[in-house]
Design goal:
184 residues; alpha+beta; six-stranded antiparallel sheet; two-stranded antiparallel ribbon; 5 helices; 29% helix; elongated
């Protein structure tokens, strides 16, 4: 009989002080609640969030418009290949080079300011201004032109998953959009 007593004591001690067996039995702490009273005097409660699950904000992928010249899509991929990680402040230079390399334009555009790009592309190269006011809705290959007060502005090309000029970006420029231009 004396040998059974130590075995019982050890097993009772393990059951009392080991958390894993208790969890295996289905014991769990109640979820904490946040209690509050709204403006009308009603009492409410809500679960307290104890874990954070980051969810990336994803903008829609660009649409392939069959009416847009396929050479513009090629210009977008050329610009993406040549782009840097950060801006070199040469957006219009890089966009011009991509348009010439893809054969979209026969000669290099002559304007120096990026905010003048749309006017020149329409006047000299057969581009049209598209009825798009949201940069995320611009078709792949379209040229987006942005204004800037007392600055050169900004130009970028829409790619399948972002925007590119002299650098790549998932988001469009924060400058005011002048227009979205494409060749059909």
């Amino acid at each position: 009989m004396p040998k059974i007593c130590p075995i019982i004591v050890i097993s009772l001690w393990c059951a009392a002080f080991c958390p894993r067996p208790a969890a295996a039995l289905g014991f769990s702490a109640p979820k904490p609640k946040f209690n509050y009273t709204d403006a009308s005097g009603k009492k409410h409660s809500a679960d307290v969030v104890d874990k954070y699950y980051p969810k990336k904000i994803v903008q829609p992928l660009a649409k392939l418009d069959t009416q847009v010249d396929p050479k513009l899509r090629r210009a977008a991929s050329i610009a993406e290949e040549r782009a840097h990680a950060h801006s070199l402040s040469k957006c219009w230079h890089f966009v011009k080079e991509a348009l010439v390399a893809a054969g979209v334009v026969k000669s290099r555009p002559q304007t120096t300011l990026a905010k003048q790009a749309g006017q020149e592309l329409v006047k000299n190269y057969g581009f049209k201004k598209l009825p798009v006011s949201n940069p995320y809705e611009a078709p792949v290959g379209s040229v987006l032109v942005y204004d800037a007060k007392r600055a050169a502005g900004h130009v970028e090309i829409r790619t399948e998953n972002g925007f590119v000029s002299d650098f790549r970006s998932k988001t469009p420029s924060r400058r005011p959009l002048i227009g979205v231009f494409a060749k059909t």
